Amino acid sequence: MQSDAEKLFNRISFGFLLVGLISCVSLTDEVSKKESSSIYLQLGVRYMDLDKLEIAKENLQIALTKDPDNVQVHNAYAFLYEKLKDNQQASEHYERALTLSPDDWSVQNNFGRFLCDQGKYKQGLALLLLASSTQLNDRQWIALTNAGRCQLAINSIQSAKSYFEQALLLNFAYAPALLEMQKISFQNRDYPEARSYLGRYLMVGVYTSGLLWIAMQTEFALGSPAKAEHYQQLLVEHFPLSYEAKQLKPVLQ
Asked: Which of 235, 191, 188 is nearest to 211 (CA)?
């Protein structure tokens, strides 16, 4: 027969074992929720890429329910609300994400760009510069390009140009920065440079009506009517209803 001491010891041992098992189950359940949240986050982002916004929202809501403090879920949710034109909700989710992880460069970049779009240029630029300066950010050129666009919005052309140039030093073929530099070069009447940026952009980017309009006028300015007519034809073919295409007739008369 077991002594009272042995019985007590066994009960205590069983108690510790039970607590340990409960802790393991709780921990496993917590890990499972985070993993599940991550899966729904990826689905939400994928559906956003496909422009299926309602389905994206459903998946992000599930992700948030499973892990309310997931920084990237709030980050993605904010971006979704931007697409849905709900700036109040977008701002709230960006603020929550930044509170949860103040040094997250992805949140800094997205929130900074958003604030600049909302006319809060000083706050937005401050976040973008934080995002562009951290060594943890392996895509600093994105934040620098957004900083350049933020400066363009307040007509600070030289400052904007500096940010775009820094972005292109880090990524020679980053299309958004090349596009902005093409515009600035054209506005500055530096037509050879505008043509150069256009050539670099066309190696990695797609046509836009604005790009073809500037390309056409650049070639006219450089005395290359054949090239100008080529870009004019592309503009009419690809963007017949665009503002730029409607301006062709007065330009050519």
From this structure: 235
Q: Name, in order, each residue with C-beta under 8 angstroms of 210's C-beta and a sequence gap of 6 or more.
A: 183, 244
How many residues in total does the chain contain?
A: 253
CATH number of 173-253: 1.25.40.10
Q: Return the amino acid letter for 174.
A: Y
CA 92 from centroid of its chain's CA atoms: 17
How many beta carbons lie within 10 A of that of residue 238, not counting itself? 14
Q: Is the pTM of this model over 0.85?
A: no
Euclidean distance between CA atoms 74 and 126, whole angstroms:
20
Distance CA 61, CA 40 (A): 9
pLDDT per residue over 134-144, tens digit each? 989 999 999 99
Q: What DSSP character marks residue 242?
A: S
Q: Where are the domains of the chain?
A: 173-253
pLDDT of residue 29: 56
Q: What share of the chain is helix, strand, coil (3-state, %, to 5)?
A: 80, 0, 20
* pLDDT number for residue 105: 96
Residues 87 and 124 sit within 8 Å (Cβ to Cβ) = no
pLDDT of 192-223, one tens digit each? Answer: 999 999 999 999 999 999 999 999 999 999 99
With left for phi above 0 and alpha for psi between -120 and 50, is residue 52 left, alpha or beta?
Answer: beta
